[in-house]
Specification:
This protein has 195 residues and is an alpha+beta fold. It is built from four helices and six strands, in the order E-E-E-E-H-E-E-H-H-H. It has a five-stranded mixed beta barrel with strand order 1-3-4-6-5. Strand 5 and strand 6 form a beta hairpin. One of its GO terms (molecular function) is single-stranded DNA binding.
């Protein structure tokens, strides 16, 4: 029977833990808190709606190899992540707790064995650097600078060439009288603008 792939998005409850098993074998462990929210009819002191979180889920995530190393290097407590993998039951005997027969109690938890972990970019900008198993990491990469929406709009407006500018750059003439006549016809309802 094949296992169903599961994707969980949420926030890390603590910094990842990295375990090393020798000969380049790494295991990263972290816990993700996820919930669903809905807007209530109530408003807070700032007159904004109050959101209620329900269906809380706390799940342990494990990942191996380069993904474990990258997760350890990139993630932190509170980081918003999207983790995809498959669910398994992790079982062990807890010698510190005994059942009625004096035997260790068997404990278990559900673990997401992740093969993909991504930083959720809804509220963050991150820099990246490609890594490989051979260690051919490019050097001298500059980090991504945080750019606001206003700066992006200003950049795209400066780079954009208007239709009038394009006509003059191509050496064609642009007749203001013709443009003015079309504008008056549009206002009079004689011509419908194409947009």
């Amino acid at each position: 029977m094949s296992q169903m792939h599961v994707t969980v998005n949420g926030n890390l409850t603590h910094d990842p833990e990295l375990l090393h098993f020798g000969d380049q074998k790494f295991l990263a462990k972290f816990r993700v808190a996820s919930s669903r929210s809905y807007r209530t009819n109530e408003k807070g002191n700032n007159d904004k709606p109050i959101w209620q979180e329900v269906d809380n889920l706390f799940i342990d995530v494990e990942c191996w190899g380069q993904l474990a190393v990258n997760s350890m290097a990139s993630l932190f407590k509170g980081a918003p992540v999207i983790a995809t993998g498959y669910l398994v039951s992790d079982m062990w005997e807890d010698a510190s707790r005994l059942n009625d027969k004096g035997e260790p109690v068997t404990r278990q938890k559900i673990v997401l064995k992740a093969y993909r972990v991504a930083f959720e970019l809804g509220n963050y900008q991150v820099s990246s650097k490609k890594v490989s198993h051979q260690g051919n990491t490019p050097e001298g990469m500059s980090p991504v600078t945080v750019v606001s929406g206003e700066e992006l709009v200003a950049q795209s407006a400066a780079e954009r060439v208007s239709a009038e500018d394009k006509v003059s750059l191509e050496g064609n003439s642009f007749d203001d009288a013709v443009a003015e006549g079309v504008a008056h016809a549009e206002l009079a309802g004689e011509v419908i603008a194409p947009f």
